[in-house]
Amino acid sequence: MKAIISVPLPQAAYDIVVAPAGLDHLGAWLAAAEPPLLKSGQKVLVVSNPTVFRHYGQRVLDSLQQAGYRVSHCVLPAGERYKTLRSVQKIYDAALAHRLERGSAMVALGGGVIGDMTGFAAATWLRGIAVVQVPTSLLAMVDAAIGGKTGVNHPQGKNLIGAFHQPRLVVIDPEVLKTLPAREFRAAMAEIIKYGVIWDGELFEGLEAAQRLDQVRYLPPELLQLILQRSCQAKADVVAQDEKEAGLRAILNYGHTIGHAIESLMQYRGINHGEAVAIGMVAAAAIATQLGWWDQAEADRQHQLLVKAALPTQIPAGLASDDIVALLSTDKKVQDGRVRFVLPKGIGQADTTDAVSEPLIRSVLAAMAA
């Protein structure tokens, strides 16, 4: 079943295509658009990591070559700790070696790390060339590949270096999830549950009705389709209303404030992004309950979904509350020295606030200590 979700941005509208075997149609879709999303004969640099490229790289190269594009590739190490300017330099080196021009494009074939770095490289190579996102992890499919946020990490914080650069096209092939490790699938469920909490109550209820959420093989095809379509639609809805995070889009950071701090303190080892976000969502839910934004029953519903997805809900052992609180001050959402939190106001609704006191943060973190 092929589904198309539009992201109707005034200056950079694009489509998200969800379709089985989508990898094999990538080149044809780029060429068949009117006008073509990428002119025939142009150079394309495919950026991936070793594992993904081994599984799917040749299919993507063949698809692009059959459509008449001149294709090269760049393979980078896998993992959040490689999401650095040094890795982006390798993309630049490949772009230079293959003489990419302003009419050329980069294709990000991989998870969120590859997508973010490729998008940032495309945004800055020759002051901006086209990028196509082909996410291969569930997390990238429902989050990182959509919305144009690109970037890399600084040693002192996550995603502190970056740019907004919208893709020309996003192609999601659900079949690639068959090779996704179970832990990566579970990590993505945190972001999907997030969409249910902040935006889409029907998606949340659909997840509640599922028997299991911890492995893709336990999801009926219709539920996987629901998850992909409604999660992508939620992200598209928010991005269309607030492309550059001037207001509404900030709600997409639900769970990320404390989550990013945990990732940074652990140096992106031993925990992945979705796991950190799940912990951050539990903290945000507790803060919202303390402030009276929603009630304990709703917080419990969120907690039950996180547990069903086999996600962590406690602060990892060895992390000190003092260190987490100190790192919050470097978060991108800090304004006038005050940390801004995204908090739920009910299932399907959220808002931002800077009225969360440090004692309340410390109290919640203490209660969540492993």
Automatic annotation (TrEMBL):
Q: What does the record give as EC number?
A: 4.2.3.4
Top-level EC class: lyase
Span of domain 3-dehydroquinate synthase C-terminal:
189-334
Q: Which residues form the signal peptide?
A: none
Q: Where is the 3-dehydroquinate synthase N-terminal domain?
A: 74-186
Q: Where in the cell?
A: Cytoplasm
Please give the Gene Ontology molecular function terms for this protein. Answer: 3-dehydroquinate synthase activity; metal ion binding; nucleotide binding
Q: How is the cofactor bound?
A: Binds 1 divalent metal cation per subunit. Can use either Co(2+) or Zn(2+).
Give the record's family classification.
Belongs to the sugar phosphate cyclases superfamily. Dehydroquinate synthase family.
As for what it does, the entry says:
Catalyzes the conversion of 3-deoxy-D-arabino-heptulosonate 7-phosphate (DAHP) to dehydroquinate (DHQ).
Q: What is this protein called?
A: 3-dehydroquinate synthase
Which species does the entry assign this protein to?
Halomicronema hongdechloris C2206
